[in-house]
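Weekly puzzle thread! Below is a chain. First person to post its structure in token form gets bragging rights.
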Amino acid sequence: MAEVRMHQWAGALDRLRSTSRRRRAIALAVVALLLLLLVPPVRHGVERVLHINSRPTGTACNQGAGGAVGNSNTMGMAVTPDGNGYWLVRNDGGVFTYGDAPFWGSANTHIQTPATAIAATPSGHGYWVVEQRGMVWAYGDAGCYGGMYDTTLNGSIVGFAATQSGHGYWMVGSDGGVFTFGDAPFYGSMGNTHLNAPVVAVAPTPSGQGYWLIGADGGVFTFGDAQMLGNLVGISLNAPISAAVIPPGSAQGYTMIGKDGGSFPFGSAAFVASWSGQVPGSDVNGAGTTLLGHGMWFARGMGQVLASGDAGSYQ
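Winning reply:
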């Protein structure tokens, strides 16, 4: 009888050991998977799969919803805080991630008017997508502070910039009108003023206490503590200006980017590179700078991104 009991106990112990080995193997596999996901290329690949297969999520910051619009041209770029990745937004609201940029959602299937810009939150854990008519979509840790969808506009929304706190943003219309939300202060606008060319971008100063408006002809309009550092008015350009980027640091500067890839730095902005004459179709619609300002990306309408200096190539 004792031998039978000992045999039963031995069998139970073997089963327990076998179960423990399986559990340890499963636990080790889970830990290994989690550690693997910390490697940016692997994480990015997983995020890309989720991007393709998940339903877009986000918060509409005012009113309006509808079907996707646009012809899938890339319209804007936002760089991650560490400069090792970026987001692209198409005019149909689709958001695409590269490098260490995480995917938080996409506005396609929701927007009513073409998307024109994207801006990242200070943490990089969220972003805003803005429509031509002023509808704002917030993703990740991006807060909703309002939009212009239910307001009659004299010009399409063409530019968007977040405040340093991430608790507000500026929007600018092609007519030079500036609209502020959250903790974004209003310092003035070019609304109801005759312009020789439409405004294409808004760029806050390093202090956040002013901003520049940039025109398609290279005109620069200063507000708050923004200094006039130079412009391109009267200069024959091969293509209109389509974007502007601000260099890192506390000194004031800006670089205007032409649709042909031309680069025009002023103030503290250093010349990094120019793609003028090398962009078929002249379709550069967005740009971004690296963490130290020694590199720059040029985003083309077709979705290709041209990298210069120490800017990484993630496509």
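Puzzle host: Confirmed. Bonus trivia for everyone else. The first strand starts at residue 59 and ends at 60.
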